[in-house]
Write a structure and sequence with these properties.
The complex is a heterodimer of chains A (about 400) and B (about 200). With about 400 residues, chain A is mainly α. Chain A contains 17 helices and no strands. Chain A has one domain (about 5-370). Chain B has two domains: about 25-70 and about 145-195, 2-Layer Sandwich (Alpha-Beta Plaits); about 75-140, no CATH class. Helices cover about 40% and strands about 15% of the residues of chain B. Chain B has helices at about 35-45, 60-65, 75-100, 110-140, 175-185, and strands at about 5, 25-30, 50-55, 160-165, 190-195. Classes of the chains: A mainly alpha (about 400), B alpha+beta (about 200).
Chain lengths: ~400, ~200
């Protein structure tokens, strides 16, 4: 990494850190003035950046299993992305003090009226929520640390053993993530609604995480593609492949999102409807329409075209749209549980993602600086850059 | 009838005694896919257009190197997909809403979320059928015999060899000149392909 790039990154890191701390400091005001709004906004901001980290973690494991040339120039971005997970665990602590504001199962008045919440008490309780959050994040942090350590070890040796370890962890790792991630989605998001449950929900959230991580890799690849040692190896084919992956996950996200909606629409059962009543019946339907347009129709039709996927500026803009619209998607998952009557936008809805994002980016850049931008000696590398189209 | 040139030996011109009307083209054989790609690019640069290449596995750059126009198959797939989707929706709306209106749990007659699965399936079905049919028709398939099959070495096109075929119908094609051009590409063999 060149010294001028290092200097630029240092400056960006300092800016992100200062903005992050300042905005989060400002949000302390929110705790005293609009307490419930604060916790909901904070949950939304925390979830978005957590999902990005988890997406990076998943995509790294997917690439260890599948290979593919798109994964080598983006691996260091993905690794730095999941190395931020310990910070996300630390940032989860404020949530533990606001469970009563967020979740019906932690509120005595809801517990008194709702039998279902009392029946679920053995699982859904404050201690369980805190312990499970720490356990899930702890397992993922540990797996992430292993993947990162092996990746750095591989840089130093020709022996392919570290890459084989990473591959051996990734298979069971993805399965374990699917299991733990399902429970985590129930705790963190699904239990915001009193009665609602859906077995499809965790799938939707996890697909969204992967989509965000791919969009993020495209953005980072464009920012860094003219730097050494990426400049000579990054080609339009990398963009083409990442574009295909974006299209795949746009389709997958739409398929599972609509699938869940269709099943609930067809079933028409009262305890399943809350989720959509809060998210469609009121002015939240405007947000849903924006999601349908920017999370599906626009990217789907544009990403069908091969020239767009091979055009750096065009694909980067598409990735920026998908990244932004996924912020809106997270907002639409969380916030209607609080503002059930319709959209109410608070300054804290901007402050939380910006503040948490500032800290996230600062730590991300620290990890990005600490390793070469291209992994070395991975056995897949020798084929990855040999032919223009393969 | 095929004339063979082994390039390890001196390179005589082929014996071109037969009626030139029957000559379909020259087939050059290569050992590596890089060589085939390079040969295709140089043949294109030399002005040859009516040519084809054969390889045991797909080489993505090859169509571009041969100067193939973008395929029309995706357009047929798009048209087929749109016809399938709109037709599917029309079928459901017309039968459920018009011909035999049925109240299902108080939902509107034009209950679009329930129509989407059929629309989706028909889009995929008609799109893939039109892509498949368009591929066959545009390639003029099924085509049971081609003169290159007469060249004994050609069976390795599906095993481990790479072939460049320049058709005699090409505007630039001229027996001696094309033959010596192919020699400059250093193939393993060059064969004449004749219609029997």
């Amino acid at each position: 990494m060149s010294t001028s790039l290092r200097r630029q990154l240092n400056r960006a890191q300092a800016t992100a850190l200062v903005i992050g701390l300042a905005v989060l400091g400002l949000m302390v005001l929110g705790v005293f003035t609009q307490r419930r709004q604060f916790f909901f906004s904070y949950l939304f901001g925390w979830l978005f950046w957590l999902q990005l980290s988890l997406g990076c973690f998943l995509v790294t494991m997917i690439h260890h299993l599948t290979g593919g040339r798109w994964g080598y120039p983006t691996r260091r971005f993905l690794e730095a992305g999941f190395m931020v997970l310990p910070l996300m665990l630390l940032l989860a602590v404020p949530l533990f003090f606001g469970l009563r504001e967020l979740y019906p199962w932690a509120r005595p008045q809801d517990l008194a009226t709702e039998k279902i919440l009392r029946d679920l008490q053995a699982w859904q309780n404050t201690l369980g929520y805190v312990l499970r959050s720490i356990l899930f994040l702890g397992v993922w942090i540990w797996m992430g640390l292993c993947l990162r350590r092996w990746s750095l070890q591989q840089d130093a040796t020709e022996d392919a053993r570290p890459t084989r370890y990473a591959r051996a962890l990734s298979g069971p790792g993805i399965v374990l993530y699917g299991l733990l991630g399902t429970f985590a989605c129930v705790d963190w998001i699904m239990s915001l609604e009193k009665h609602w449950y859906s077995t499809m929900f965790a799938v939707i959230v996890i697909i969204g995480q992967i989509l965000t991580a791919y969009a993020f890799s495209v953005l980072l690849l464009t920012l860094f593609r003219s730097q050494q040692p990426l400049a000579p190896v990054v080609t339009k084919t990398h963009y083409h492949h990442l574009g295909n992956l974006l299209l795949t996950f746009v389709l997958f996200w739409t398929y599972v999102s609509f699938g869940q909606f269709l099943i609930i629409y067809s079933g028409d059962l009262p305890h399943e409807l809350d989720w959509y009543l809060h998210r469609i019946a009121t002015s939240w339907k405007v947000v849903l329409a924006a999601l349908a347009l920017f999370h599906f129709f626009l990217p789907f039709f544009l990403l069908l075209f091969r020239p767009l996927k091979r055009h750096v500026a065009a694909l980067t803009s598409m990735a920026a749209i998908l990244f932004t619209v996924h912020v809106v998607d997270t907002y639409w998952l969380v916030m209607p549980a609080f503002h059930q009557g319709g959209v109410v936008i608070s300054w804290q809805d901007f402050a939380a993602p910006i503040g948490i994002g500032g800290l996230w980016l600062a730590l991300f850049l620290a990890f990005l600086k600490s390793a070469p931008l291209l992994p070395q000696h991975d056995p897949g590398l020798q084929f990855a850059f040999r032919y223009e189209h393969s | 009838m095929n004339a063979t040139i082994q390039l390890e030996q001196p390179r005589p011109l082929p014996v071109l005694t037969e009626d030139p009307q029957e000559l379909i083209g020259f087939l050059a054989e290569f050992k590596e896919h890089d060589q085939l790609l390079d040969a295709a690019r140089r043949a294109y640069a030399a002005g040859y257009r009516k040519m084809d290449a054969y390889s045991p596995f797909p080489i993505e750059e090859l169509p571009e190197a041969l100067g193939c126009r973008p395929s029309l198959v995706p357009m047929f797939a798009l048209l087929g997909g749109m016809a399938g989707g709109l037709g599917g929706y029309f079928m459901e709306w017309y039968s459920m809403g018009r011909l035999y209106p049925l109240n299902v749990g108080g939902r509107p007659l034009n209950s679009w979320p329930n129509f989407i699965p059929v629309v989706f399936e028909l889009t995929v079905l008609i799109a893939s059928l039109s892509a498949f049919t368009a591929m066959l028709v545009l390639n003029r398939l099924p085509h049971l015999h081609h003169p290159v099959f007469e060249v004994p070495e050609f069976e390795r096109a599906s095993i481990d060899r790479f072939f460049l075929f320049i058709e005699s119908e090409d505007q630039k094609f001229e027996q001696k000149r094309t033959w010596s051009f192919l020699e400059t590409l250093v193939p393993l063999t060059i064969k004449e392909v004749r219609d029997e």
